[in-house]
Design brief:
This is Jagged 1-like. By secondary structure, this protein is mostly beta strands.
């Protein structure tokens, strides 16, 4: 003689209004057949502290009225009993959680860097976003869905339709099709939906404050050697270890100027120095290098 087989427990459902719990199981006994299918509910894979074992006549579909405790993982267990009282128990692959509240919305930022919000983007073929502080204290976050649109409306998905991501994802770059590339000067918004892991899935959404597409280069200005107050260019310098330069009238009508890159090159193209720094208008900035001291004035 051999005990029964319980292959799986699946299709677990719970009605929060009627308190009806339903589950299906795949059980069999090729020798004596099945007489009963007992079931219980526990807070771990090993106990039956939510509902003690109940004996039911064998049926592949179980239904029982019981009010489940909110916010606690509950494991469904089934015990198949054959006609000679041999038994086999199986636990569901995952617990169920009754969660009657939606998740708490977090923040959605534009751009690929976590917790960094961009005002502008130079990309037209993809739209990046990141988010954090979405949470659900009862059942946790089960998964996210992300969409993008050209207006600040969570239901507008004219740029990218809803796409699902697992609960560990917090930044994405949506690749766009050729007929949906981002347009210069247009503002775009990303919406993130968070779904909890309750038996009855609930969700919450948040939308970014938008990112403006800038596909054009800045407007070039004027550069002069030296630090003459009248912006005159000098031809000679008495310092072998210091370079002074000033410039003005660089501009960008869409995204403004964020950073300047300075290159210092010898007259005979023997040596090239690259220096990158951030500077604001009307600031005097001095940058030191291993080879020389660079002093710049932005007007």
């Amino acid at each position: 003689m051999s005990p029964p087989f319980v292959w799986e427990i699946f299709d677990i459902r719970y009605d929060e209004d009627t308190f009806e719990l339903k589950a299906a199981h795949n059980s069999s006994d090729p020798e004596s057949g099945l007489e009963y299918n007992d079931f219980c509910l526990g807070y771990t894979r090993r106990d039956c502290n939510e509902l003690s074992w109940i004996r039911l006549d064998f049926n592949p579909n179980i239904s029982h009225i019981t009010q489940l405790t909110d916010g606690i993982p509950i494991w469904v267990k089934i015990r198949a009993v054959n006609r000679v009282d041999l038994r086999t128990k199986r636990v569901a692959d995952a617990p169920i959680i009754v969660d009657k509240t939606p998740p708490i919305a977090g923040h959605v930022y534009d751009g690929p860097l976590f917790e960094t919000d961009l005002m502008y983007t130079k990309d037209s073929e993809q739209l990046c976003s990141n988010w954090h502080r979405f949470y659900d204290q009862e059942s946790g976050i089960g998964y996210y869905m992300v969409s993008a649109g050209s207006v600040p409306d969570i239901n507008v998905t004219d740029v990218a339709n809803l796409t699902g991501y697992d609960s560990k994802t917090h930044e994405v770059c949506i690749e766009l099709t050729a007929d949906n590339y981002l347009k210069h000067g247009q503002k775009y918004y990303t919406t993130v939906w968070a779904f909890n892991a309750g038996i009855k899935i609930r969700n919450v959404s948040a939308i970014s404050n938008g990112v403006i597409v800038d596909l054009t280069k800045p407007v070039s200005g004027s550069v002069k050697d030296g630090m003459n107050e009248d912006f005159r260019d000098i031809r000679f310098s008495s310092s072998p270890a210091k370079v002074e330069v000033q410039w003005r009238n660089y501009s960008d009508p869409e995204s403004t100027i964020q950073q300047y890159d300075v290159k210092v090159q010898s007259a005979k193209l023997v040596q090239l120095y690259n220096i990158t720094f951030r500077a604001k208008q009307n600031n005097l900035t001095e940058v030191s290098d291993h080879f020389f001291n660079l002093k710049v004035q932005i007007l």
